[in-house]
């Protein structure tokens, strides 16, 4: 049996962007009947919100799209870097924080800006909505849904899917 594709979504606090991305991607692959092919998780580069559910604004926005978020925030650890096949970060600061944890080129090549998979020509980042208003959370939700589709297409092109 082929190995599962292990995907880790990473942001700063693991209460806004990365759980939203995790929920959107899980929802997409479930709808496509691909859930058996994946292991999916999310985490933060900080432990500021360890054990917390996603921000209420993130949960409310996801819920409106039929996505129920139950993930509890946790901090990225060294084992994640070897365990997961794809380390999908939300912005350049996350990228620097993660890449600075290793000199191993194999691991460094697993780090991608999730925003690079968006369908338009916008900046390849998912901006932090934490200090913003509700519309910023809607924008993040739209973006992570769009990037999820793009990432799944990328996996197809890379012949990662069965
Ligand atoms: P996230 O957003 O990285 O998308 O989860 C944030 C959540 C919390 C904080 C910053 C960003 N904070 O400073 O507590």
UniProtKB/TrEMBL annotation:
- Top enzyme class, one word, equals hydrolase
- Keyword Hydrolase assigned to the entry: answer is yes
Q: Which UniProt keywords apply?
A: Hydrolase, Protein phosphatase
Q: Which domain of life is it from?
A: Bacteria
TM region(s), chain numbering: none
Span of domain Phosphotyrosine protein phosphatase I? 5-154
SMART domains in alphabetical order: LMWPc
Q: Name one Pfam family in it.
A: LMWPc
InterPro entries given in the database record: LMW_PTPase (IPR050438), Ptyr_pPase (IPR023485), Ptyr_pPase_sf (IPR036196), Tyr_phospatase_low_mol_wt (IPR017867)
What EC number(s) would the UniProt record show?
A: 3.1.3.48
Q: Which residues form the active site?
A: 11, 17, 128
GO MF annotations for this entry? protein tyrosine phosphatase activity
Family membership noted in the UniProt record:
Belongs to the low molecular weight phosphotyrosine protein phosphatase family.
Protein name, please?
Answer: protein-tyrosine-phosphatase
């Amino acid at each position: 049996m082929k190995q599962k594709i292990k995907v880790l979504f990473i942001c700063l606090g693991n209460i806004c962007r990365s759980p939203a991305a995790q929920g959107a991607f899980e929802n997409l692959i479930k709808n496509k009947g691909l859930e058996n092919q994946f292991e999916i998780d999310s985490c933060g580069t900080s432990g500021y919100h360890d054990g917390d559910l996603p921000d209420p604004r993130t949960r409310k926005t996801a819920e409106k799209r039929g996505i129920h978020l139950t993930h509890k925030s946790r901090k990225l650890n060294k084992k994640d870097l070897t365990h997961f096949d794809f380390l999908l970060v939300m912005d350049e600061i996350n990228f620097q924080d993660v890449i600075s944890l290793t000199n191993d080129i194999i691991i460094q090549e697993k780090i991608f800006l999730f925003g690079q998979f968006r369908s338009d020509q916008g900046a390849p980042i998912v901006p932090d909505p934490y200090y913003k208003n509700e519309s910023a959370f809607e924008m993040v939700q739209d973006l992570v849904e769009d990037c999820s589709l793009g990432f799944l297409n990328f996996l197809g092109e890379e012949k990662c899917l069965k």
